[in-house]
Design a protein that fits this description.
about 0% helix, four-stranded antiparallel beta sheet, mainly beta, two-stranded antiparallel sheet, 6 strands, single chain
């Protein structure tokens, strides 16, 4: 996973977080929180998820999914 604040550079999300249980997930998920930089006003936050899936011929396919969220409090 990666994040971007206000259209800036992609920054990797690393480390653990608080474990949470989601019924639809086979494994433990982790809730991550943080502050991009002290004093920065967050207008938008974009989350990126990079992954690989394998088709029936065992060929790997790379994909990226993104979601951009507006800060309603700025």
């Amino acid at each position: 996973m990666w994040y971007s604040v206000n259209g800036g550079a992609r920054v990797p999300i690393s480390g653990g977080g608080s474990p949470v249980s989601i019924p639809q997930c086979k494994y433990t998920a982790y809730q991550i929180s943080g502050e991009p930089a002290p004093g920065v006003v967050v207008g938008t936050a974009t989350l990126f998820v990079d992954g690989v899936w394998f088709d029936n011929q065992n060929v790997a396919h790379f994909y990226t999914r993104t979601g951009t969220y507006d800060n309603p409090f700025n």
